[in-house]
Amino acid sequence: MLPLCQLLVLVFVFQKIFPMGIKNYPVFLFVGLMPWNWFSVSVNSASGVFLGNRDLIRRPDFAPQSLILVDLLTNLVTFLISLPILLVLLSFHGIGITRSLLLFPLLVLIQGILIFGLGLIIATLNVFYRDVVHIVNVGTMLLFWLTPVFYQSEVVPTEYSFLYTLNPMAVLVENYRAIFFGTPLEWNSLMISFIISVIFCGLGYIIYFRKLSEVVDVL
Q1: Of 47, 58, 190, 210, which alpha carbon lies 20 to 30 A from 104's?
Q2: What pTM was estimated for this model as a whole?
Q3: Please, which residues have CB within 8 angstroms of residue 186's CB and are 6 or more apart in sequence?
Q4: pLDDT tens per residue, range 107-139
Q5: At what angle do helices 83-92 and 65-81 cross, to 10 degrees?
């Protein structure tokens, strides 16, 4: 329900009040909103995952990192449930499905690695520093405007384009659009995003395992 409400509001604002001049704008916007909502909801909710499951984490036979995975997959289901709505929009706007859609699992995998790594970092640090949740909320809000969800990345001045290459979500959103609109993927930037996602995942595991015993004690 939330993605549809966001879609209606943003379409009204950026098609009627401040026209973006983008063809098939509802589809363009919805394709961007789907992965962004998966990312933002998962990252924001990660801060309370360990704090909200103290009893489970204190069990010696329980792996706390599985809570991050469960939260990630739960929000992924919402993402996938939105796909039929997207397919209807594509059909309504006369956009056919191409073989590029077969690369959808690859993008989901890269984004899943990114979310899991960030989730581990946020959930672990928030146990010790309770302000992390507020920093994350502000950070995701700012990142939304730096991710081409409702606008095209082509409007970004050339001197700032490197910031979008270093923003994994910006690259992922652009490539999600590529597979649904049947245009070529940006393989070079996608590889950079994959590497950045793996780095975050590795960093998340390092922080998590170094702090795990302290997490249990604090909780």
Answers
A1: 47
A2: 0.90
A3: 171, 174, 175, 178
A4: 999 999 999 999 999 999 999 988 899 999 999
A5: 30
